[in-house]
Amino acid sequence: MPSFVYTIDVEANPPSLQDNTGDLDRLKKAIFAKSRIMPAIPLERMAEVAQNFRKAQFKGTAFVNDMPNGPLLVDFQEEPCSVLPAMALDLGTTHLEASLVNLLDGKILTRANRENSQIEYGADILSRIHFAVKDDGLSRLHNSIVATINDLAEDLALQAGVARQKIRALSVSGNTTMVHLFLNLNPYYLCREPYIPLVNSPDPCQAGAVGLLIHPAAPVWIMPSIGSYFGGDLISGILASRLDEQQETCMLIDVGTNAEVVLGNSEWLIACAGAAGPALEGGVARMGMRAGPGAIEHVTIDPRTLELKYRTIDGGKPRGICGSGIIDLVAAFYLSRIIDIRGKFKKETCPDRFIDTGDGLGFVVADADEADQGEPVVLAQVDLDAMMRSKAAMYSILTTLINQVGLEFADLHRIFVAGAFGRHIDPRQAITLGMLPDLDIGVFQPIGNSSLAGAELVLLDRHNRERCQELIAKITYLELNVNQEFMIRFSGSRFIPHTDTSLFPSVPVFD
Amino acid sequence: MPSFVYTIDVEANPPSLQDNTGDLDRLKKAIFAKSRIMPAIPLERMAEVAQNFRKAQFKGTAFVNDMPNGPLLVDFQEEPCSVLPAMALDLGTTHLEASLVNLLDGKILTRANRENSQIEYGADILSRIHFAVKDDGLSRLHNSIVATINDLAEDLALQAGVARQKIRALSVSGNTTMVHLFLNLNPYYLCREPYIPLVNSPDPCQAGAVGLLIHPAAPVWIMPSIGSYFGGDLISGILASRLDEQQETCMLIDVGTNAEVVLGNSEWLIACAGAAGPALEGGVARMGMRAGPGAIEHVTIDPRTLELKYRTIDGGKPRGICGSGIIDLVAAFYLSRIIDIRGKFKKETCPDRFIDTGDGLGFVVADADEADQGEPVVLAQVDLDAMMRSKAAMYSILTTLINQVGLEFADLHRIFVAGAFGRHIDPRQAITLGMLPDLDIGVFQPIGNSSLAGAELVLLDRHNRERCQELIAKITYLELNVNQEFMIRFSGSRFIPHTDTSLFPSVPVFD
Lengths: 511, 511
Prior knowledge:
Chain A is of the alpha/beta class. The first copy, chain A, has helices at about 25-35, 45-55, 125-135, 135-160, 175-180, 205-210, 230-240, 280, 325-335, 380-405, 420-425, 425-435, 450-460, 460-475, 485-490, and strands spanning about 5-10, 60-65, 70-75, 85-90, 95-100, 105-115, 170-175, 205, 220, 250-255, 260-265, 270-275, 295-300, 310, 320, 355, 360-365, 375-380, 415-420, 445-450, 475.
């Protein structure tokens, strides 16, 4: 099945008095004769396509967008096409990751990433939605993200040695709000009960219409969302994990700003989302940070000596702790009894590691001497509390969801864990905390940035674009905002590992 | 089959926590439930449609464009739709005629017409093509015609009491060059051997993309052409005359700047075009004019007394002679022997009717006293010569075409005569001149402005839009520019009625 844009090599008979077909009609006929495809040509492309077709003496390469309502002929060039670059984009709230794919062979040409420049208007989704309502707020947010994407496209193009305007397609995988801001659509109702997007499944548009500086007729595919809190990034995750093609029941966990979870197999899919992420993503803890240079990603504490060892992602001096580091750390706190089962510091266990942060107690993970820029890395009680809420929310989401369909965790064949969270955490430590269910470690499978991987997949094959539409028709969405069961489970989960310790037989119980 | 734009009354369930579908997805679903149609929504229309849908509390009227590659949802309003105006346009080289059609019931709301403002850049097609090549010539011609169409749309809207931007579709029927200029496409190759249009059959576009000030998402249908000299106006003529649905073989003659002729039935169609028009359209004779106020449309001369009587279209003082008046006049000249069979004046027959025009002899049809603004209406020998060439060309075109398929004129069930030419001429006089074949008068059927009528038909029914595509695939085009037979026939036709008088048994032969 065709990629989002494809090429057709054509050679038409030159015009003559005996064959007075118009140039574009001639081109279409030649394409039809070659491929049984009869594309339409948008008005804005007619003049240039006709000019190129004549200049090439009616022989060359046609570029066709594979749109849901039929093929669209958008360009023509004399030379054979050796590389057909398309951009896949993970449009995150804080961070954008992109790859450049050669649609001719499916290979990744290069990758790049950028901070989300909208952060200057609001660190989180909610503050940006509020900003969007003011005066020209929406257009400023829109212009900001388009500018960043244009910069990213330029990065990719430079690295791959192609011109930016030769990028001939774009796929975008992001949460529902980011997609609204990208398309310059009002996000007002997204954060107000009953939390309704302006659109979940926008029809593809052309890059020029959004202000993108890649090829103006490059088709833009937006991964559809299921609701305000279940975005296209998770549809990407389903595509990438092939959850929708599994014979046995599996689960997909994606932790970003929210924890988004899908459960199911090739027969059925059920999903829910909830606020469980910030502490894990590094957005809440004062010393929290994204998994990047200087981030402490792994921590151990010897339960006897209380000696602490850590490892940063790049092996350099520590600047902060990323999500996996926090999980390791809190699990180690628990196992070495530096915290109690409610997640409260027990200062008496090692008084010299604690300082007063000015906002309560803080545990010094790395002191000023060893840390980057002489700034000690500290985990405060308030950060720990946030972490406890996050882990409780996560486990409650998972149990609510699995109970909804009458299954138990033991019925799961596999749990796909997406994103940086999946790549860096040690499931063993997350189980110790009671964040993930107490299953065999082999059940957990990290799948990396599946938001980006899904975006790549839709560029490459119409089958994957069609799967998106099937998915959104197939997924049952469980709204947690009004779910009583979730609230009850949340209370029971605010202990390590859980009030019901029998749920976590592998985790030692103290006191 | 649906009109080019149609409405669907929908009522969707309001959003709730249990039903968190996005607004536009909700609207699409409601439309699908009602009509089994699943439209796409273009990005540019998403924000407004969603806003209107919410304001209307999820109940109202959706506007859907019936595009060849699927339905397109472009607008939504709370109120029921009582009138759905669409504009049909006959885009002539010298003159534009338009009508406003109510797509809800197919009735014509009003009509209007305007001069083609491009005349300031060139009176005829050829001079405009030359102008288009200069600097910004093309965009000036394009802007000029778009401005005129916007004015016409404003005229129609005012007359019908609707807002111009509520005109929700446009169909354009014009010759190939006019269509190029309208779409801002380079007409350079149209007038250079082998006379190739940039496009014969452009895909529909949206009004906003062309600069039209009707509804920005109004779909624009362009009647396809067959070649440089066979435009969409004649495809309209075929639609309006239903030539393509006739059991018996018929002919369609359309005389504008060129004479365009189609021969055929429901099984086959053959067409050709040639320069035969100007003298008949009033574009060549110094006193020639379009059929309008002050135009002499009918003339008789008593063969015995040589008394001349004329009638103007509006009964007012004469200002010039339109095509039908010229044909009447020249036929009367012949029957009263004021000209010879070569079309040369015999001054001696009535010396007092002749004056010296400064460029040869001229016959005074109406003298200064009786004419409008004291300017006598004169037909000069040079005008007569042009007329003789035109009539010879016309008859040669008809005979070449009918011979091409091995038929004779007597085999024709009907001859449809389109345009002002068809409405005003007396076929009897055209036969006397040897311009039309010597058939029973009942065979000739005037069909009025079939260019406009065809444009109206495509607005009303998808079947007619599909017929356009079938027609251009079906018509065989006979190129006269390289036709030897045509040149030979042309020479034989430069006499009244013909060198072979046996072809015109009903016409008296003199000398």
